[in-house]
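Page 42, continued from yesterday. The earlier attempt failed because a stray header line got pasted into the input along with the sequence. Redoing it now with the clean sequence only.
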Amino acid sequence: MSSLALTLLYLLAAVLGVVACRSLKLPPMLGYLAAGVLIGPHALALAQNSEGVRHLGEFGVVFLMFAIGLEFSLPKLRAMRRQVFGLGLMQVVLSMLVVTLLALALSHAVGGVWEMGWQSALALSGALAMSSTAIVVKLMAERAELESEHGRRVMGILLFQDLAVVPLLVLIPALGSSPDHLLTALGLALLKAAVLVGLLLTGGQRLMRWWLTLVARRKSDELFMLNLLLITLGLAWLTELAGLSLALGAFIAGVLVSETEYRHQVGTDIRPFHDVLLGLFFITIGMMLDWHILVDRWALVLVLLAVPLVLKLVLILLLARGMGATTGVALRTGLYLAQAGEFGFVLLSLTLDNGLVQPALMNPILAAMVLSMLATPFLIMYSNRIVMKLVASDWLQQSLQMTSIARKSINTSKHVIICGFGRCENLARMLEREGIPTWRSTWTRPRAPSCRGG
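This time it went through. Structure tokens are written below.
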């Protein structure tokens, strides 16, 4: 098949998959995965998971990490520190610990394809500890739950999971080294990461602000976009050259841009590349899934689906309950985060590339992760019914929350709504110094600074 025909096939599969998911009110990511399974070598065999397409799909991960870095800000972390560094940290650490111990126990008891060392168990635990930011945030936004009690806890855990991916991207390749050189490889990787991140973050933010301001003054959309691509891919290439991952460099690029006044505009400009290439990445993941596994080894897939799902749900429930949440809020938080996530696929693929998991075990794990993501919209959709049946007092807690939200909304007054870019940042800072509350929405292009207040 020619390159043009292959490209058209991928585009057609992506369009049909997304249209089908939109019709069913499901996240587009599930459409990409389903399209990959359908056209892949294990189904209709219309396309092979070629090396070139797989590498192109990796750029989707690069732009995903850039977008995560763009949302990273110290004020945001400070405001959510209890949820992020309390609940989120404990969820990731305890999930990885429990999954690692279970994997090692299973390896010792069964052996065969399950036989693995602690390095493989630790790498797999990192992949299974992740939840889907893309699916959960979108569904919560549609249900207006981002500012709810469980919504804040869900966002805190997801934010820490996104941050935890960065050290895992450094750790997993080092775990793939030979046992004799493992400590050396791990120490060297951490040292290189620390030096590179330190150099970039020490003077990089000031340099980034100066450079983007200089580019924006040229008043050229094309030039601004080209510079964004150059910065993102350039820093990704720099970290790969240092023996680290592409995604780590993209994350650093996003963090540097997030400290400038152009962060909102950059997020808008980069999103088309992020969405299209990430969709391609999920198609390639779907092509790796052998649907025959669901038929031939259905019992194994169900175990791999149920155990991590129940484990994460119970663990998050207990942690949230221990940190002061009501039983209903804790149960909702667990239901929303029990599934596998997009970063789980990234880490699982990295684990396979470094020889840490046997290919025979890859497909059952992949099938279970895909099924857990397919189940997520339904878990969230019916979460109210589940909680109401299991927690009798939850309706009272919801009534109190709605009353509190209504009271805060009624009392909100004497604030300024700012829409714009450029000089509006100075206006916002001046109003904040005067103690006047502001609400900001950036919408203009970087080449046309303007603002409107209301």
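Notes: The first strand starts at residue 416 and ends at 421.
Reminder to self: strip header lines before submitting.
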